[in-house]
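Our preliminary data section would be incomplete without showing what the modeling component actually yields. Below, a chain of 275 amino acids is followed by its predicted structure, encoded as tokens that our downstream tools consume directly.
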Amino acid sequence: CGIGKYLSDAGTSASYHDSETDCILCSVGKHLSDAGTSAPHHDSESDCFICGAGSYASDTGSASCSICGAGQYLADTGTAASVHDSESDCTYCGVGKYLSDEGTSASHHDSESDCSVCEAGTYTGETGTIACSICGIGKYLSDAGTSASYHDSETDCILCSVGKHLSDAGTSAPHHDSESDCFICGAGSYASDTGSASCSICGAGQYLADTGTAASVHDSESDCTYCGVGKYLSDEGTSASHHDSESDCSVCEAGTYTGETGTIACSICGIGKYL
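Predicted structure:
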């Protein structure tokens, strides 16, 4: 008899041995890989072996068992064919975990421990995950895979605090695996919201000279300093480099003045006057 088949009659009648159809297909959940090299490998139903851990056989007469797919495992070690007779016998990895192997080896799918907790900077709220999602813009997750409960929802990602920003849009987990990935806004800018992708630039007539020494001096627009009287700054936030120093505030030109702080443009002397 061929692959996946056996014939247990011990020669009691020729009628049981007169056609290949007399060979019986191994039942689902079992396999017989021998390609007819030896009759003793096909003379009993016991020659059909129950699939091992990490695998199943959903067809009768299987030569080998199929391996559970990515995100799945099957821990039973072949105690019963009924728990290896369908792909649905494979169990999905739980939320907060993943299994990326796409069925290359049953040993990668034979235990719940094959499901790895998502690494720092990543999470998954779904079962049967192949790969974890990376925290998004302005967020990080520092837990290094100690517990799936810390990686089972996007809400596990922590928003960068005010005064800081994180611009990466989830391209790489190492950009979201630590609070240190949230950078303090540089000179000329601030972030008044948590989870900021970028910092806002001080407005016209304002500057912020601190070079990012502390988030507390970049967490509000009020951290921007007004140019003094007699000076102006016309740039309306096109570049932080135009607002990063008191020297960005220019003294009013000849013929102009301002008695106010935070001036965008100086006033021109009136009729009959010059400066």
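The longest strand covers residues 5-6. The mean pLDDT is 96. Preliminary results of this kind motivate Aim 1 of the renewal.
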